[in-house]
Amino acid sequence: MNDMDLTLMRLSGAGYCCSQIMLLLGLEETGRSNTDLVRAMAGLCNGLGDCSGPCGVLTGGLCLLAFYAGKGLDHEQEDERLPLLLSELREWFGKTACSEFGGTTCKAILGGECGRPDPQRCGGLLAKTHARVRELLVENGLDPSQGRELPDAF
């Protein structure tokens, strides 16, 4: 068991869903916290709540890319690489990470069983997808240990 496995077990054991875990990994890496953002990510849990939507690992990964490259302040511009980053992750997730499941919905990944995530399948997808997000960031000159600038006051 490696450090990522232990982190995923800790976060999952604390009751966070896949989309929340993806964002928490980025927040922890940048030394930040944002409980409101983590709460909002719950709207992406379990394939948008009923397993019919895209996997929370994918939507969480897309949100994590936007955490690093999206617009968050009036004076900011979205990083011009964001659309390509999002496209590359979506394509990789469907063709590589989920190729054995026949789709990218929670229902497909869980073999038609909506409910509790499968620790083996979901944990593996979380680890692989987080690694791919980090690769995409680094390949595009974005430092995973840094986020966008912080506003002066929250």
From TrEMBL:
It comes from the Bacteria. NCBIfam families: DVU1555_fam_CGA. This is Putative redox-active protein (C_GCAxxG_C_C). The lineage of its organism: Bacteria, Pseudomonadati, Thermodesulfobacteriota, Desulfovibrionia, Desulfovibrionales.
